[in-house]
Please model this.
Amino acid sequence: MADRKATLTVDGLDKAIELPVYSGSMGPDVVDVRDLVGQGIFTYDPGFMATSSCQSAITYIDGEQGMLLHRGYPIDQLAESSNYVELCYLLLFGELPNDEQYTDFESRITNHTMVHDQINNFFKGFRRDAHPMSILCGVVGGLAAFYHDHMDITQPEDREISAIRLIAKMPTIAAMSYKYNVGQPFRCPRNDLGYAENFLHMMFSTPCERYEVNPVFAKAMDRIFMLHADHEQNASTSTVRLAGSTGANPFACISAGIAALWGPAHGGANEAVLAMLDEIGDDSEENIQRFINKAKDKDDNFKLMGFGHRVYRNFDPRAKVMKETTDEVLAQLGRADDPQLRIAKRLEQIALEDEYFIERQLYPNVDFYSGIILKAMGIPTNMFTVIFAVARTIGWISHWNEMLSDSYKINRPRQLYTGHTKRDYPTK
Ligand code: CMC
Model:
């Protein structure tokens, strides 16, 4: 597999070290540095800026070209012609399903949407005003307590049923965390509804009145799920892999992923974008420029939320689809002139013409518009990251499954130690 070699010379070492260089099917070549350990040398790469932590065949991103492929298929084509359940199949199994495989997969998911009745008791332990992400983290981790019989992670069938359970139950638990928050009774899943439709039903229906899911919202929600489904080795997926590398059960691993996603630099950004748009308040030129200046000011912690990405240095292809979907939904709701959308568009325009953002290749990311669309659909801000977590579950579990299907080692980075050298405890 090594096509070429890299040669490393290190001051103080008497011979050069030869390291294999591998080429993937696309993307930059990688230097295999594992043999360095034998030479008493580690690599140093805080934030994994230049480190490939694994091999993967699931998702490919070309940050320069703004390209995102799932199993080779471009995200814009998938968003246009596929749906979330089909994408889940593709990510998990590697190929698009035929009709029979699709029907079977969808029915397996729908048959696992309900949670065990005792899960309801977990919720009572949370304060009513608990952030739904904290509830999600806790309850998903707690699922492990219910499935002892099918948690042999060395068995492909057990891994598959865990994946199905997680994909199926995440919307149910997410909607329950919202219902608990607003003090409404939990709604049972309806298996005659599609995945996104059912989620909206569990979020917004009450026992008191008939609730018809708006098909425009269902389609938009399905697309939001698709756009967030996977993004190769992002922070939360790497967290899931890291936890999984210890042999931890899938529910614990996904719970770890949810925790990592919660941060404002990752999945929490969609919530932060709305807070920022609220703070900006109006779309006057002067006002927006003030916030752009704040974002550029090194002495100010303020960042333009929904802008920038570790990998995308051109544009985020998900943001493009999200922007179009936002326009469609707001137009259909007769709210094309939504004040927050106006601020967002103006902010984007000004930032994209500003030297600071151009130089640093900072473009709107997927979260820049997702908050606006979610808000228009009546989703409260504190549920935005929860929805991201529901969508990303397939990515997390597909990566976890891929890792366990192959040979892997416990993920255990090393460090550049900068503390005290050995010293003796003072004798009294
Ligand atoms: N506003 C203002 N300046 C920024 C921003 C921003 N949103 N993002 C990056 N910069 C600046 C940063 O200060 C640095 O400037 P300098 O070179 O002068 O020190 C330069 O751009 C490079 O940024 P970085 O922080 O080194 O880049 P990173 O790859 O470590 O961070 C990021 C990527 C996404 C964490 C960061 O761009 C950010 O915090 N953005 C806002 C939060 C956000 O929208 N996150 C969602 C990411 S997409 C959804 C997901 O996948 O989770």
